[in-house]
Amino acid sequence: MLRKSLAIVLLVAFLIVAGSAALAAEKFREVPLELIQLMEKQFHQVWTPAGPSGEEVRGAGDLELTAEEIEKAKSLDLGQYYFMGASLDMTETLNRFGMNKVLASIGKPEISFMGSNSIADQIDQVTTLAGKADEIGFVVAQAWEAVTLGPSFVELAKAGVPQLHNWTTPAGLENEEYYVGLVDADGYGQGAAAAEILAYAMGYKGEVGLIYFALEQWTNVMRLKGAEDTFAKYPDIKVVGKAGFTDPSQSFDLAIGLLQKYPEIDAMWGTWMMGVATGAAEAVLSLGRLGEVVVAAPDLGGKAGAQYIADPENPIIGAAEADCIEMGENSVNAAIKWYLGNTDIAQGYFVSRVYPVVKANLVDVYNKTNLEAIGELPQDVLDLLD
Question: Which of these, 325, 323, 324, 278, lies nearest to 297 by C-alpha position?
Answer without folding.
Answer: 278
